[in-house]
User: Fold these one by one.
Assistant:
Number 1:
Amino acid sequence: MTNNYILTSIMASLKLNKVDILKSYKLVDKKITQDDVDDILREPNDEKFILLSDEGFELFLNGFIVYKRGPSDKKTKKQKIYFSNNIILKKLKIALDLKDEDIIEIFKNDSLDITKSQLSAYFRRDGHINYRKCSDSLLKRFIKGMN
């Protein structure tokens, strides 16, 4: 599953438009144009298609958090982390100010019953004994359930 696909799925589920995407990038000082956003959102077989990198998608998610919740007073230390579906899930949780119960309800919208303890495993640190990897299908179901 590509970052472009995840981005377009998030846009569809949350009814975001290209301007929202552009604003999210601008909030993290990413130099991006409307044409760049258009190219990211094109079909993969289009010659102008641009593949969205992990770093580029993470910048969008960070900007989306600021877009939805406002700037943070905390100084965050920039550290390189492995970008994964778990990180995407966590950043969407933060951006949309979701509680565990909200996420469980979102999964129920897509006919998936998940317990609070199962859910917490996806938000644990990689390497933790109870850490669980978020699969592509689980992330798709979460995004679909946000409709």
Number 2:
Amino acid sequence: MKTFNLDPDFTPYGKSESFEQFTFPSGFEHHVKLPTLEPGEEVRVSTRINSSDDVMKLLLLSDALERMKVVKKELFIPYLPYARQDRMMAQGEPVSLKVIANLINQMGFHQVSILDAHSLGTELCIENYRAIDNSQLVQTVLETQEEYLVISPDAGAYKKIFSLCKNIGYQDGIVSCGKVRNLDTGRIINITTDGTPVEGKELIIVDDICDGGMTFILLAQKLKELGAASVTLIVTHGIFSKGEEQLKKYVDRIYTTDSINNISSEYITRFSIENLYNKQLHNL
């Protein structure tokens, strides 16, 4: 089976076949050129989608494969963008998850694998969808910890984290937290907990995405006020659009994957998806 990794710094399937990709002098028009493939040959593709340019490159590559009449076995997108807008909240808004799903569906892959998708609606929108959960990441981190409590950051995450803890054999309690938002602005105005004592405890927050990080800053601040000894964040997709500095004030350590980029630091550890999920990715 032939492998094409559109992002040369992200190789979950191992080494990619050589192919050309470049941007025309306009600065916004892209091009790919693949080697000649035999009709019926099987291929798999991976890419990190961090911009609309990455979506266009994937569409171009898919079209080139289609024209050579190959069998498009699997597409792996570790982080699915636009999944946070999975319903129309107000008149005049799009359902962004449906838009990205339609683009992916038209590519015709036999299997579309996504790591820890934000929305449960992903399964309904994307054809031939295969979910890869975050259990391997969480288990890898927790193996280095001794005594801790797992934190669910909000009510929406609780069911998912409960299932995760059951799968990895964690049997202690889950501290359930909640967010109170201003209905006009959407900003978080208060963080609540279920009253479980956390004083002197090592706490582990588990979630799928950290974008700017304000939720985790406020949550960690609240937990520290309640006496937590430390707060660690395990997040599958680490965007960190506001940088590390504000997070560092309250969150002691962060663990994530290379679903967005490969940048680690003394504060943020990124695990390789290729190493964590090798068996799942090669089990077609």
Number 3:
Amino acid sequence: MSVPITRVPSMLPVSAPVFFGAGLTHKGLVRERNEDSILTDPSGVLWAVADGMGGYGHGDVASDIVIDRLSQLPDNTLAPQAVRVQLQAANADILARTHAGKQMGSTVVAMLVQNFAATIAWVGDCRAYMLRGRSLRLLTRDHSVVQDMIEQGLLGDSERETHPERHVVTRAVGVEPDVEIDTITMPLIAGDRIVLCSDGLTTCIGDQRIAELLASATTPETACDKLMIAALEAGAPDNVSIITLFAAEG
């Protein structure tokens, strides 16, 4: 009987990407205070944007709680389960801080980079985008009244930013006893660029403009600057928070 032979192909040299990023947050040109909070990580692993819900009051407290909980993620944790655990803990913390019927909450988008893959978790209408080559892809789905109406065919996508309920979200951290968290995990390759942002950015500039500015930037810092300037030039009626992450050749 012949013995099966397994041929092991030679390995092609692969340069693993390295990750580096930057973040900016601004109160905008209309709001008196900034209720957004951001988490940046010099090691390139953990990033987040939390948008406090000012309509409920104490939105800055809620967003700070979310970011504080996420910052406690241990090294070498198992994503996405660990991200979910921290957001659920933040949900309980916010509910415990609610007094005299004054509800507060926060939307959030968070990204954990492990083994050259990004796990993105979100609640509400903070967004994550990825630019690969010339193509910009929205990685998240808004948890909002307007998004539900669009998907039901009751509203056109072009009407998204002019609808009177465009800021009404259907999910937030700290509003209900249980929070539903969506996650995706995707591999990253050298050249990828990712944006995490609050709706203060996407209310001001569209996807095409985001893609143009992201593609033209030479560093994450300049990408944040370009996007922030564009939002401010558009009037910035809300707080604006931006994080950009670049994957470069190792």
Number 4:
Amino acid sequence: MTGSNDAERRLIDWRVETLRKINAFLARLFETRKENQPPAVLNLLNAMEYTVNCGGKRVRPLFALAAAGAVGDGEDRGLPGAAAVELVHSYSLIHDDLPALDDDDLRRGNPSCHKAFGEDVAILAGDALQALAFETISRPADDGPEARSRACLATGILARAAGPLCLVGGQAMDLAFEPERPGNSRPPRETPSFGDAESMAERKTGELMAASLGVGGALAGANASELDDFRKIGLLCGTAFQITDDLLNLRGDPRLMGKAAGTDEKRGKTTILSLAGAENAREKARELNREALGLAKRFDSDKLNFLIDSSVNRSF
């Protein structure tokens, strides 16, 4: 029992230390860009940094560094990719919270970016975060041809995940399944199937989780077979993560989540949970988690297993 506790303690210590590295890397990105800028640009950078530092769990960058470590070329090689996926995730949160989309006033217990800085600046902050993500990931840790090749591969992985068939496409599906709201012009509401809800969750959440593993692995030299398994693990884990988010939205503690419970149900949101019911959704998340852990065995990484399990077994 003591050995098990020691192993868990080491993993928690790894997460704390890795978060410190990620946060330091992100802080440097903004610090170097704030020098000698006019007030309007400083305000934009502050809005960007505000959302990046607004209490996120950094799940995606942790996955990126765990993947980098799992293929044996060092976790730190994955840092540009880890930062980039967090920047893309942050941009998506700013835009999701806007009145035209999810219309959320709170994000992780704090005012949403458009509430803190205004809707105009929030839109620009989201745009700029996405551009900064690709600037960051495309710059390799060193200037050798192999590092440049790895950075190019990682950039392509992230670009696909952030694009119209994945993250943005999933958001478009979410809107299409939502009851009409005043001021929103869109085609008549579609009637979603369970398969549609699964596809939406995979696109909105699974693809960026898969990209997190993929960019970390690519920057550390993963081969094609390893990248394929990282993608499969990420899709499974990301969908399970989204189901868990939906369950927490229904029954979670608002003090831990930083936002009110039950908002999805009030808005008539389509989710795996809304179509399958709470118990079936919970079992689906557990099934996906087991499958992801099975695929992760090839990497023999306690850190990766720890993160996969934490995606489902959490309270916020």
